[in-house]
Amino acid sequence: MSSRVLYLFACAAPPVLRVGEVVADAQRAGWDVCLGLTPTAARWLEDRLPVLERQCGYPVRSAYKLPGRPDVWPPATVALVAPATFNTVNQWALGITDKFVVGFAAEAIGKGIPLVTMPCVNAAYARHPQFARSLEVLRQAGVRVLYGEGGFVPNPPGEGRPGAFPWELALAAADEAAPARGVAG
After folding, report:
1. pLDDT digits (tens, 9 = 90+) for 75-88
2. CA distance 5 to 166
3. Which candidate, 102, 5, 108, places its Cα nearest to that of 63?
4. CA 179 to centroid of chain Cα atoms
5. What are phi and psi of 16, to 5 degrees?
6. Which of 1, 44, 103, 155 is the most exposed place for a label (fewest CB within 10 A)?
7. Domain range for 21
């Protein structure tokens, strides 16, 4: 296993359907990947969860662990929240942590774990005034937000292009966010 651990937190937006390919791309780039899903994303991928767990080598998580239980994942080097839905972005910025994915991301701000997010919303959601405020809150908290030019650009409602989600930009940003590896000497 790699010494670089990527927590990939994916939400229920169409690009999540390609998450197995994204895990493979991250592993080829030298990441040890732990996959977390929102409850709806886990339901969408329910039939693929055993394969994803074998691919990652860790349980796929969509719920908080029980108190007193050991963590089943190694510590994160970087956390990537993508695709991040309208709901997840707003909950995260507002500190509403009923979902494991949002709770981890919110706490990671305080722990200093490097965070990257790439929202995936349609243009109608993007025009809601809370969305821009939430993105600004996350940026001010030190989260690298890949939205707009150089990140995700919203589509008109009903014209989603899940195959065009720029996963490669998200993985590159996670790589850039990782602390420099020590040089042996």
Report:
1. 999 999 999 999 99
2. 21
3. 102
4. 18
5. -65, -20
6. 1
7. 5-177
